[in-house]
Write a structure and sequence with these properties.
heterodimer, A: about 475 residues, FAD/NAD(P)-binding domain, 2 domains, 5-stranded antiparallel sheet, B: about 140 residues, two-stranded antiparallel ribbon, disordered N terminus
Chain lengths: ~475, ~140
């Protein structure tokens, strides 16, 4: 990491014009815009600087980059496990680097429903373009690998639409925040303190004045840190941002409408060699049913293959030696259900709850049936859905007529890496936590700049939308300030 | 009933001020051992090292588990240990391979929280197993 990033070595007090909490895509875009105008910006990040290399194992990555080693779940009728990045660069360090724009009809719909000023496709387009440019996103679908070929073949047989995906990567690897915007901002004067967890924002007369944090030094010793600022941007992600705000006493429409993209996986076995671990990811997705359902390929590493076998060991153990013939695919849906984040006094982690609606389950069932159809059309011999106790589907078997599938809410194991909407933005004060530009209602100098602001599930990977909205809001902040 | 647990004190304060309550949760070593697939290519010592490595990783991982998962998991694990003892008069760690197989199969048939305990252990074990140098680098 460039100069400007450091860890504290004792109790510390900082002062700055703008404090940003969190170094994910939202925080980094905001920092980049503000630093460029000469503002003194300080960023606090709870996680460490990544030391991962392409040779690092999934276990090492879980330990260093993921919150709670990936052991996080939204509880409810059916628990939904979720993943959050907890490192410098945030979610951009652990996601699959797929960059997509939210469909224009959804953006326009949100502008209307949530009364968001100067919002919609036309208003956001220049910010999307800028985000794509900043991380050098490009279509990688031109080079199909065996994982893609499965989807292309299946989709062709069924006459479904399959699209290449834009990813932020180049020859040197993924273009995450730590190697793009954050690196540039540090060179431009941004100060970054890593391994520093904010536990409270102090407010006085409708103004945020300071934060109290605990930072860890290189020897693992903890030190109290206080930061005084003129303005604050909270960009800690859709779960941690509302948790911190609630812990600090800001509760109005905060953490009450969490949305996510529930995703169901299936392990597929093919007679031909796939060698998924060589290719890791497919740069294509079946977009026939977008934005409600997307079918795609999961990141494949030996460890993830192992986890997939563990889901139903009884029926999958025999595939241990078949790793080169297996791949993991998913069906991701745009759910209508929503959840809540409860901050519990005295405890570090919040309680996250989420409830899928009947409509969501219908979509998930449809998604899984479509996925099975696609994979069988592409030549799969057996498919193992992530349903507890499920023995798998064979090619000529009717899909989805078994008891376990009929009772999906009781047996399915959904997960997600896309969380948002926990502090929606807009002028509708009954529903929204912030105004149209991310400023928290009724507070003078406190803003939100992450996926919490996205009003509803976008049906696509949210990173580009987070970046576009953060950029737009940062520009508005600068305009008002001047 | 402790299933090889050495220091399962729960819950405890994290000792770094009162900002959070850390739930100390010690994983069951016998369940780790049970979840590792057969390894005919490994010597007894190598397999023991594999188990040690996975167990110590799991120890770290479970220490960081959010309380909303740690509390139910702690209870389900205690129930697992009690049920294992009641099923054949031995702790799970002292049961034979065949007894463990039968017990775990029956346990999983009880429903989601019970089956989830085994799935959680097995998921972590398999993640670490497939990427462990002893397994990954074998010819």
């Amino acid at each position: 990491m460039n100069m400007g990033s450091f860890r504290v070595s004792g109790p510390n007090k900082f002062e700055c014009d703008v404090l940003i909490i969190g170094s994910g895509p939202g925080g980094c875009v905001t920092a980049s815009e503000l630093v460029a105008t000469g503002l003194d910006v300080l960023m606090l990040e709870e996680g460490p600087i990544s030391t991962m290399t392409p040779m690092s194992s999934s276990a090492q990555s879980l330990q260093q980059l993921w919150r709670n080693n990936g052991l996080t779940a939204a509880l409810g009728g059916t628990p939904v496990s979720y993943a959050e990045g907890r490192c410098v660069g945030g979610g951009s360090e652990i996601n699959s680097a797929i960059i997509q724009r939210t469909p224009s009809n959804l953006l326009d719909q949100w502008a209307q429903d949530y009364k968001i000023e100067d919002f919609g496709e036309a208003a956001l387009m220049p910010y999307y373009d800028k985000a794509f440019q900043a991380i050098k996103a490009r279509v990688t679908g031109g080079v199909a690998n065996p994982l893609s070929e499965v989807m292309i073949k299946g989709a062709a047989a069924l006459n479904w639409k399959v699209s290449p995906l834009e990813r932020s990567e180049d020859g040197d690897g993924k273009r995450s925040m730590s190697v793009t915007l954050l690196k540039d901002s540090l060179a431009n004067g941004l100060r970054l303190v890593s391994e520093c967890r904010v536990h409270q924002i102090v407010f006085q007369n409708k103004k945020a004045v300071s934060v109290k944090a605990i930072a860890q030094d290189a020897d693992g010793c903890k030190h109290a840190v206080t930061v005084y600022f003129k303005h604050i941007f909270v960009a800690a992600g859709a779960v941690q941002t509302p948790t911190l705000l609630m812990r600090s006493g800001v509760k109005n429409n905060v953490g009450k409408a969490l949305r996510l993209h529930p995703t169901l996986k299936a392990l597929a076995h093919f007679p031909q060699l796939i060698q998924a671990q060589k290719h890791i990811l497919a740069p294509h997705a079946v977009t026939e049913f977008m934005p409600d359902i997307r079918l795609g390929c999961s990141v494949f590493r030996p460890g993830f293959f192992g986890m997939s076998l563990a889901e139903n060991w009884q029926y999958r153990a025999h595939l241990q030696r078949e790793i080169d013939h297996c791949a993991i695919y998913y069906a991701m849906v745009r759910a209508q259900g929503f959840g809540r984040i409860h901050s519990v006094p005295g405890l570090r982690d919040p309680l996250v709850t989420f409830r899928l609606t009947n409509q969501d389950w219908i979509l998930l069932k449809r998604g899984w049936q479509s996925l099975a159809k696609l994979l069988f059309a592409a030549g799969a011999t057996q498919i193992f859905p992530s349903i507890s106790g499920h023995s798998g589907w064979y090619k000529d078997q009717p899909i989805g007529r078994d008891t376990l599938f009929e009772n999906l809410p009781k047996f399915a194991n959904p997960f997600t890496i896309h969380l948002f909407s926990s502090c929606p933005m807009g002028e509708n004060k009954k529903r929204c936590a912030t105004n149209s530009f991310g400023k928290i209602h009724d507070l003078d100098n406190a803003y939100i700049a992450d996926a919490s602001l996205i009003p509803e599930a976008p049906g696509v990977n949210p990173q580009a939308t987070v970046m576009a909205i953060a950029d737009r809001n940062a520009q508005n902040f600068l305009k008002i300030r001047n | 009933m402790d299933c090889n647990d050495t220091d399962s004190c729960w819950p405890i304060l994290d000792g770094q001020g009162s900002i959070s309550l850390k739930l100390r949760y010690t994983p069951c070593r016998a369940l780790v051992e049970f979840s590792i697939p057969a390894t005919p290519h490994l010597s007894t010592q190598a397999r023991a090292r594999l188990i040690d490595d996975i167990y110590s990783y799991l120890n770290q991982a479970f220490l960081l588990m959010p309380w909303s998962l740690a509390i139910p998991l702690w209870h389900v694990q205690k129930l697992f240990q009690l049920s294992a003892f009641l099923s054949c008069g031995h702790r799970f760690s002292h049961q034979s391979e065949a007894q463990r197989e039968v017990f775990v199969l029956r346990w999983c048939q009880r429903g989601r929280p019970f089956e989830a305990l085994i799935r959680l252990y097995r998921s972590f074990v398999m993640l670490l197993y497939f990427e462990h140098p002893l397994v990954k680098d074998r010819p």
